């Protein structure tokens, strides 16, 4: 490239520096990135790298929003959501509301490879996991119990219920929050209550895989499943086009299938950064104050990201590992 072209490239997006293989994931979860990369380097396929990378976050309880011991629901229980997608075959495995099993991404892959189904939920998903040999373990920790007790002491605020009559037989909800607290709830956005690790891996041959893992929204109504395990919402992969993964307010984001939209944009020739922005802008049109971000990568190894700008949240961090970075690096994108 000529000097002028290089300077122009530097002023644009990371898409200029396309190279394979590639690992990219939401948030600065460096160990997950490194684990995925080392899996590729040791001969693992893209699907292996996604599974091992997300599993690393589950073990480390990244930001307390992935894996066990985080985001207790209204009853104090932690449940897990995860999905994995093979961009070569378009196969998907997913679990929602998984109980007692720490390795949610592993169970999701078992659903994909050991059944003819795509998505298992709740207690039945946990029983399936146990049948597949995954150990049953307590997902509650002293920390998650502390978070739950503090929430109860604050009269269960913030919460996800609205326009519900009080029920004096229950210690917390269903009930109608007072106007002042409800207004405060909508004004305050805790980004760490919505974290998900979303990962896209593309190997040297251009095979694409994507996956997610999360413990969901903190203080959610029991039974709630967010966008993370929904194919096309939490993540999407197609080896003919690319992959994408999202993080944020899943109850809103799943309505727009942002990962699918971004991949379809890349299929049409749109660069990854623009594809991500299009997906975010589509949601923003209807929910201008939603919290969310997305990462995208096409089959050449070009990548990008986008996020919705909010007070106190103007940049979104994500991790990248390829041969040019020569290690896991944190990048940021300005929100729109």
From TrEMBL:
Give me the reactions it catalyses. Answer: N(4)-(beta-N-acetyl-D-glucosaminyl)-L-asparagine + H2O = N-acetyl-beta-D-glucosaminylamine + L-aspartate + H(+)
Where would one find the signal peptide in this protein?
Answer: 1-18
Pfam families assigned: Asparaginase_2
* Site feature (Cleavage) residues: 195-196
UniProt-listed InterPro entries: Ntn_hydrolases_N (IPR029055), Peptidase_T2 (IPR000246)
Q: Does the keyword Transport apply?
A: no
Alphabetically sorted, this entry's keywords are: Autocatalytic cleavage, Hydrolase, Protease, Signal
GO CC terms = lysosome
EC number(s) stated in the UniProt entry for this protein: 3.5.1.26
- What residue ranges carry the coiled-coil annotation? none
Q: Where does substrate bind?
A: 224-227, 247-250
The active site is formed by: 196 (nucleophile)
Highest taxon of the lineage:
Eukaryota
Please give the biological process terms from Gene Ontology that the record holds. proteolysis
Name the Gene Ontology molecular function terms of this record. Answer: N4-(beta-N-acetylglucosaminyl)-L-asparaginase activity; peptidase activity
Q: Does the keyword Protease apply?
A: yes
- Report the top EC class in one word: hydrolase
Family classification? Belongs to the Ntn-hydrolase family.
Q: What does it do?
A: Cleaves the GlcNAc-Asn bond which joins oligosaccharides to the peptide of asparagine-linked glycoproteins.
Q: What is this protein called?
A: N(4)-(Beta-N-acetylglucosaminyl)-L-asparaginase
């Amino acid at each position: 490239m000529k000097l002028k072209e290089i300077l122009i490239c530097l002023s644009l997006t990371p898409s200029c520096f396309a190279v394979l293989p590639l690992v990219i994931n939401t948030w600065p979860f460096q160990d997950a990135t490194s684990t995925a990369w080392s899996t590729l380097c040791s001969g693992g396929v893209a699907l292996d790298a996604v599974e091992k990378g997300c599993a690393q976050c589950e073990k480390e309880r990244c930001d307390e929003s992935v894996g066990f011991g985080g985001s207790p629901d209204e009853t104090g229980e932690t449940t897990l959501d995860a999905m994995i997608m093979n961009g070569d075959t378009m196969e998907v495995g997913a679990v929602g509301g998984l109980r007692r099993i720490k390795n949610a991404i592993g169970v999701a892959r078992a659903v994909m490879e050991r059944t003819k189904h795509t998505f298992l939920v709740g207690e039945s998903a946990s029983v399936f996991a146990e049948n597949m040999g995954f150990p049953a373990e307590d997902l509650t920790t002293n920390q998650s119990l502390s978070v739950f007790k503090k929430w109860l002491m604050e009269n269960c605020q913030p919460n996800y219920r609205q326009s519900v009559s009080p029920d004096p037989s229950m210690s917390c909800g269903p009930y109608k929050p007072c106007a002042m607290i409800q207004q405060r709830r909508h004004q305050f956005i805790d980004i760490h209550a919505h974290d998900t690790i979303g990962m896209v891996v593309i190997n040297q041959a251009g095979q694409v895989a994507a996956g997610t893992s999360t413990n969901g929204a903190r203080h959610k109504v029991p039974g709630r499943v967010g966008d993370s395990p929904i194919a096309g919402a939490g993540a999407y992969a197609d080896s003919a086009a690319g992959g994408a993964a999202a993080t944020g307010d899943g109850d809103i984001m799943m309505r727009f299938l942002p990962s699918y939209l971004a991949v379809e944009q890349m299929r049409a020739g749109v660069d990854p950064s623009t594809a991500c922005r299009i997906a975010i802008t589509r949601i923003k049109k209807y929910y201008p104050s939603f919290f969310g971000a997305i990462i995208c990568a096409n089959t050449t190894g070009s990548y990008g990201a986008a996020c919705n700008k909010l007070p106190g949240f103007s940049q979104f961090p994500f991790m990248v590992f390829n041969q040019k970075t020569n290690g896991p690096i944190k990048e940021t994108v300005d929100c729109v």
